[in-house]
Amino acid sequence: MQIGMLKLAGLKNENCAGVLAQALKAVNGVSNASVSFGDSKATVTYDEEIVSTQRLQVAVQDAGYSIAKPVHGEDSACCGGCGG
């Protein structure tokens, strides 16, 4: 099992977080999903042999929300936009 985190955009309230969590849990291969409205993040436990992070991103988009663009230095990773 893999635990992944998705930075989200478009959440307007706690109800949105609940709807999105249910949409992620409905994806085959996902064993658990929680969405924090305050942090705009989803934490998803999934079987990486069954579902990919790209599929999780599609589930977010299908539910009417989007993935936030990475910011340089966020989570100690480069956003890829600066070449560094």
Describe this structure in words.
The protein starts with a strand and ends in a 17-residue tail after the last strand. The mean pLDDT is 86. The chain has a four-stranded antiparallel beta sheet. It has two helices and four strands; from the N terminus they run E-H-E-E-H-E. It has a single domain, classed as Alpha-Beta Plaits (2-Layer Sandwich), CATH 3.30.70. It is α+β, with helices and mostly antiparallel strands and 84 residues long. One of its GO terms (molecular function) is metal ion binding. It comes from Pollutimonas subterranea. This is ATPase. Pfam families: HMA. Residues 2-68 form the HMA domain.
CA-to-CA gap between the ends? Answer: 31 Å
Question: What's the tally of helices?
Answer: 2
Widest sheet, order of strands: 2-3-1-4
* Main sheet characteristics: 4 strands, antiparallel
Give me the secondary-structure category. alpha+beta
* CATH topology description: Alpha-Beta Plaits
Question: What order do the SSEs take from the amino end to the carboxyl end, as H and E?
Answer: EHEEHE
The level of helicity is: 25-40%
Please give the domain count: 1
The average pLDDT value, as a whole number, equals 86
In terms of DSSP E residues, the strand content is 25-35%
The CATH class is identified as Alpha Beta
Number of strands: 4
Radius of gyration: 13 Å
